[in-house]
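Retro notes (design track)

What went well: tokenization of the new backbones is finally stable.
What didn't: we kept losing track of which sequence belonged to which structure.
Fix going forward: every design gets posted as structure first, then sequence, in one message. First example under the new rule, 449 residues:
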């Protein structure tokens, strides 16, 4: 579907994000607002869990293990949950997944209180319960994300899909900007338990948006959940080279430049500032995401989505090279001479923040077009399963990236994973887009999977 002449003319003039999806669908507007608020809390907990495990173990490898342990369960949850979204009412499934995620957040509050009690007695809490609870949370969030993404095509018009994807980027940007910064302040001031508790409170806004969705049962013939549905989805994907390539290039990007697991060590040893610096750098990446979404007006007139994705990920890799080089030079420099107010090397922090900002912006440009391709090129009865694969990629890829960064940082140094990974991304994307000509020429005006 293409825009009407009036819509095309308006999108041609527009530079800022288009709010038309919010006006066209009250259900999407409620889901968007609730998801934005709840994402703030979710990102608070993501950062707080990493900080708490590093506080207990002082090991970057153990922080990276948070993602590694949950990887296989998340893959299963994404594939199975996406299949369930193609069988059952998507609203009901989203409610159940949200409640499980909510319960796991409350469990993190209890674990943080347990650690406080252990500290008073001269010890520390065990790490494995944190790994278990975060795995449950990741599984529930994976199913919820696949279901939420699959239903978007049912509640907004098709010609607004790319603009809706850009709005979702704003939700992510707000969450990842405010959440980590707020978590850094709360962890430093009131501790881990209160940080997780705030997440639990904010989650209620997201749940309200889910609860107010209309019923979204399966379209067409009734289907039975099982291996047959999964095989049908796999058969479709085997004959969908453009969608396969969109998954592959994102896995490459997320695996080879995933700096978040390195930030606790960088905050402690390279730039100083501890949790405050970690929160600032994490927020910088989110600011880049949000800026790309805020200035996403031109996306409606860009039709070569595959080409846009490949170029955005190449830029993403170049920012990885910058991040690695900056960290290397800072590690070799005179820390005492560079130390500034509050024990923070502010110049160093600014350089790394710029790299994080560029990373977030380029990744969001890629995400807007990849999400739009997936919804436009897939039929509704297949979207749940494909969104399940998509969520496995966008959540499982970072887990691989966490393990990659944690292992290489432990074996070599914190600067090595992003530097090597950035070069790898640029090279691999150049090769893949040269081989995958259909992806490079993909046109949204004639979407083909």
């Amino acid at each position: 579907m293409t825009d009407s002449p009036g819509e095309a003319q308006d999108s041609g003039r527009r530079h800022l994000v288009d709010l038309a999806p919010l006006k066209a669908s009250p259900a999407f507007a409620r889901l968007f607002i609730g998801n934005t608020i709840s994402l703030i809390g979710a990102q608070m907990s993501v950062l707080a869990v990493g900080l708490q495990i590093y506080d207990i173990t002082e090991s970057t490898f153990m922080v990276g293990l948070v993602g590694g342990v949950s990887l296989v369960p998340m893959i299963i949850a994404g594939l199975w949950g996406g299949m369930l979204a193609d069988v059952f009412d998507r609203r009901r499934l989203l409610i159940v997944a949200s409640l499980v995620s909510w319960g796991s957040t409350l469990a993190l509050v209890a674990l943080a209180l347990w650690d406080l009690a252990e500290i008073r007695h001269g010890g520390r809490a065990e790490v494995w319960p944190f790994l278990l609870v975060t795995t449950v949370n990741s599984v529930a969030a994976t199913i919820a994300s696949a279901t939420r993404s699959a239903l978007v095509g049912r509640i907004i018009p098709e010609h607004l899909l790319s603009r809706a994807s850009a709005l979702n980027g704003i939700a992510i940007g707000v969450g990842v900007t405010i959440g980590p910064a707020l978590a850094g302040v709360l962890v430093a001031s009131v501790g881990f338990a209160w940080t997780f508790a705030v997440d639990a409170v904010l989650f209620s806004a997201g749940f309200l948006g889910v609860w107010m969705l209309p019923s979204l049962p399966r379209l067409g013939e009734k289907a039975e959940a099982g291996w047959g549905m999964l095989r049908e989805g796999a058969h479709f994907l085997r004959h969908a080279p453009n969608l396969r390539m969109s998954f592959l290039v994102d896995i490459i990007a997320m695996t080879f430049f995933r700096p978040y697991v390195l930030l606790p060590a960088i905050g402690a040893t390279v730039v100083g500032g501890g949790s405050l610096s970690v929160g600032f750098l994490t927020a910088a990446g989110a600011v880049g995401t949000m800026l790309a979404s805020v200035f996403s007006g031109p996306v409606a007139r860009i039709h070569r989505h595959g080409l846009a994705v490949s170029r955005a990920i190449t830029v993403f890799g170049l920012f990885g090279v910058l991040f690695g080089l900056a960290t290397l030079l800072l590690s070799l420099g005179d820390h005492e001479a560079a130390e500034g107010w509050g024990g923070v090397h502010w110049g160093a922090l600014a350089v790394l923040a710029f790299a994080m900002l560029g990373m977030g912006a380029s990744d969001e440009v890629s995400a807007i077009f990849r999400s739009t391709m997936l919804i436009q090129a897939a039929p509704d009865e297949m979207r749940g399963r494909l969104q399940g694969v998509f969520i496995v990629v966008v959540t499982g890829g970072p887990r691989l990236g966490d393990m990659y960064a944690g292992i290489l940082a432990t074996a070599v140094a914190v600067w090595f994973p992003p530097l090597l990974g950035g070069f790898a991304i640029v090279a691999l994307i150049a090769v893949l887009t040269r081989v995958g000509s259909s992806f490079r020429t993909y046109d949204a005006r004639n979407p083909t999977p």
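Added context from the reviewer: The radius of gyration is 21 Å.
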